[in-house]
Amino acid sequence: MENFDFWCGTRIIFGRGTEKQAGEAVSMYGKTALLHYGGGSIKKWGLYDRVIKSLNEAGVKTVELGGVRPNPTYELIYEGIKLCREHSVDLILAVGGGSVIDSAKGIAVGAPYEGDVLDFTLKKAVAKEALPVGAILTLPAAGSESSQYAVATHEVDGYPYKRDVVWENFHLIRPKFAILNPELTCTLPPFQTACGICDIMAHVMERYFTSVKNVELTDRLSEAVLKTVINNGRVVMKEPENYDARAEIMWAGSVAHNDLLGTGRQPDFASHMIEHEISGIYDIAHGAGLAIIFPAWMKHVYKNNLDRFVQFAVRVWNVDHNFYSPEQTALEGIEKYEKFLKEIGLPTRLSEENIPADRFEEMAEKAMKPGSIKKMTAKDIVEIFKLAS
Amino acid sequence: MENFDFWCGTRIIFGRGTEKQAGEAVSMYGKTALLHYGGGSIKKWGLYDRVIKSLNEAGVKTVELGGVRPNPTYELIYEGIKLCREHSVDLILAVGGGSVIDSAKGIAVGAPYEGDVLDFTLKKAVAKEALPVGAILTLPAAGSESSQYAVATHEVDGYPYKRDVVWENFHLIRPKFAILNPELTCTLPPFQTACGICDIMAHVMERYFTSVKNVELTDRLSEAVLKTVINNGRVVMKEPENYDARAEIMWAGSVAHNDLLGTGRQPDFASHMIEHEISGIYDIAHGAGLAIIFPAWMKHVYKNNLDRFVQFAVRVWNVDHNFYSPEQTALEGIEKYEKFLKEIGLPTRLSEENIPADRFEEMAEKAMKPGSIKKMTAKDIVEIFKLAS
Questions:
Q1: Chain A hits for B228, Cβ within 8 Å
Q2: 10-residue stretch averages of pLDDT, chain A, 389 residues long
Q3: Which of A256, A310, B211, B272 has the lowest CB atom count within 10 Å?
Q4: Residue B229 sits in which domain range?
């Protein structure tokens, strides 16, 4: 086990009707909030009204900024920064999914900084302070509600770079609180639900697939999260309004990415980085992109740490270990994972999303290249794209 | 799953040599620390010197208060409160095990309070503020280093009440940071190691044994912690200096009691409350008391939620489920647990500790009486004492 520094202070307010606690949670940090959201869906189901009511009752004034789109960009972040300065905002309250929360995090580090917030992602400066962020989650997937990560897209010479908003002092952007009401997720369409499930599992697996040994506790905790998401994922695809199953997935989504499961180990994160190139360029949901890339990455790298893929097969997918052929066991695990993705309605090939091969080399070149199971090269990434075709 | 509010902000600084980061961690909260510890053991292995060096380098002044004994009392807490006021202490740095950290927590809520700190445990007042507490852990067991709980003993009419230091606003006493270096635990004697293992498992099981349904994520996370502690517990009893096994147990000990595993469910905590009466009166380690009480409690209550005890047997102890007799399966799980406790050298009967039956009724009467599997009565507790005899 490796040394680590784990500091997750996000308060989780979880359960039915908890959006009514927004006012109380926000008012611990001040009296003016920037209410940040996406399209109109939060107004459709009455969530917006309930949040505004709670904020009003707690004496919190709001400034609003809607319009965040999937794969958030810096245009809206700049607008949010301007609003925060003009109105002396004390906290940014993100109401939505990962894109909204990531956008809020960008605003949070940008607001108190005199220079261009892009300096942080371009590694020209290190963030030293940030406004506090709170979240009311509507889509369990990105885990951004209690994670210290945020991703936004900026263009250089026409290429969309989907990159981390900060590379140091990550803890500055970890939300102070997250309100998680599973009821809000019962109306999510099946495809979005499935994309969320895939993203949550990917966050666990990026950490699970490590070359660091003697990490039994986090291995077993990771397997616990994966099994729970698989079991309850199957339930919600059949019974979208099953509160308990939605609750399991929602809480699992936060635990999956708050870094508890990364303690003491080196994560891999190759699949996530490769996928960011795809959803940066093509109009594809991040979760769907992961469903295509992750199995291909597995097929490309499993021989680099066969034991780990055998463990994944046996412990997560209940594969009967073939002691004569561990490789067969490992492959059966990957197969079961891919079948599950199909079962919940996700694509597992680039061709299903009409993504052509013509930019494979370009994306492979531009992509970040981490890796614990196997340090990626551009050549590896092209191979993975081919396996995913 | 039930609604919950989970807020664990303790920063975990984990791994080899991490006590050298004490100065940096403390100085985030001020420049004067009360260094709180037990007997001389922290001086024996050089830990004291390394901590003082780190504090000095960070410009932190220290006031010292040693002498905490197992089952801490209020006398030393009063002394600590006095020192904090005299020296305008900014943070209390507990160096030791659960007793030292619990004592530090008592000092922390007492220092800023004008009245008697006992008011909080006697429910005459509610704590509103506290000094920050930091911990350098030397004995993985109590989980106090990242928990919001503390227990201390006060006497009334000659009876030692071992009770919670606060009953509300628990978050005030949760440590701001905890430094966990597994190397420091490699020299722990076998009996103390075993008591710690038993206490850690008990913290998980008190939450695991709930009557709340649809808590799959926390069930599986709990099973993950238990299996890890069992596996690595066996290793450290044979190889006391196995760093990785010590590390698994140390990190598991924090996760076991920071309340992650209690999210969405009602805990039981009957065994802990019953045990507090025993170690309050008799000279017995808390972990050894739990090894005696917990199996007896199980035998007394398992029929109240047979399914849960079957799950415990199958998932934690790998018992082959006897579908013809679930009761047999449940009993085999309890038996395996008790055998494990004996295997690591713990007593499982009161008689082994020469604890007589003459105060059973008195202890049963005085004990707190929680319970999720079965709400305890004095009669239940006497039965449990008899089963443990």
A1: 216-217, 220
A2: 96 98 98 95 91 98 96 95 98 97 98 98 97 98 97 93 94 97 97 98 98 97 98 98 98 98 96 94 94 98 98 98 98 98 98 97 95 96 98
A3: B211
A4: 190-387
